[in-house]
Amino acid sequence: MINTINSFCEDLEDRGRLGPGNLFLQRYPFDYDVDEWAPIEVVVSLEVSTDSYLRKPVDSCDTIGLNKKGSIVEDNCQRWRIDPNADL
């Protein structure tokens, strides 16, 4: 499974930008092994549905006004940071 994750990340990097409405799905077949009952195919996918998840760190901190600041939003699987001028 770790090799599958590594392969997916490499394939995703080669794929380039994903935007709302994009689905990136890859299939990784593994040959039959005598210790397994049947061949295995691991399917990994990433779907970008909308930008609403990425708006959460911006909209939830500064609820009034147009001069928004960034923040972090995360769950058990991902962490997104939007931070303007973070290196200044």
Q: What structural category do the secondary elements indicate?
A: alpha+beta
Report the β-strand fraction as a percent range.
25-35%
End-to-end CA span:
40 Å
User: Overall 3D geometry?
Assistant: elongated
Q: Mind describing the biggest β-sheet?
A: 2 strands, antiparallel
Helix and strand element order: HEEHEE
* Strand order, largest beta sheet: 1-2
Overall mean pLDDT: 76
The number of domains: 2
Number of helices: 2
Rg, nearest Å: 19 Å
Give the helix proportion (percent range).
25-40%
Q: Could you name the ranges where pLDDT drops below 50 across 5 or more consecutive residues?
A: none
Query: Count of DSSP E strands?
Result: 4
Explain what this protein looks like in three dimensions.
This protein has 88 residues and is α+β, with helices and mostly antiparallel strands. Helix content is 25%, strand content 27%. It contains two helices and four strands; from the N terminus they run αββαββ. The protein has helices at 2-15, 52-59, and strands at residues 23-30, 40-47, 71-74, 79-82. The strands form two sheets. Strands 1-2 form a two-stranded antiparallel ribbon. Strands 3-4 form a two-stranded antiparallel ribbon. The longest helix is centred in the first third of the chain and has 14 residues, at 2-15. The model has no long low-confidence stretch (mean pLDDT 76).
